[in-house]
Amino acid sequence: MAIVNRLSVDGRDYFLPDPVTELKNEILTAIKQGGGYVNIPPLRGGPGIDILFSPGMPVTWTQIDVGDQGASAEDSGAVTDEFDV
Predict the structure, then answer these.
(1) What are the residue ranges of helices labelled H in the chain?
(2) Which residues span the domain enclosing 37?
(3) Most buried one in 41, 51, 71, 82, CB count within 10 A?
(4) Which of 53, 37, 41 has the alpha carbon at shortest distance from 5?
């Protein structure tokens, strides 16, 4: 079973592997400081992407279990965590 995290920012989705705790903290810090760029690493290799986070920007985290191929959509668990600072 693999866990993939979906970060939704300004209508765009970014998929990230676990763990994302440090990335969440970097985003919160940037927002609390009035705004700043945070590098979002890619799900697979590559340099990632820098996103400018600012106060009032809605940010949604969803944790998706992408385990078995035979599991139905109802069986896959998704947990959503939203914060708007």
Answers:
(1) 21-32
(2) 3-83
(3) 51
(4) 41
Cα separation, 2 vs 34, whole angstroms: 35
pLDDT digits 0-9 by tens, 18-70: 889 999 999 999 999 999 999 998 877 888 899 999 999 889 999 988 876 55
- Please tell me the total count of domains within the chain: 1
Sign of CA dihedral 61, 67, 69, 73: negative
Instruction: Give dist(CA 30, CA 23) in Å, integer.
Output: 11
Rounded distance, CA 28 to CA 38, Å?
10
Reported confidence tier of residue 73, pLDDT bands at 50, 70, 90: very low
Whole-number Å distance between alpha carbons of 25 and 29: 6
Q: Scan for tokens 């763990």, then name that residue.
A: 19
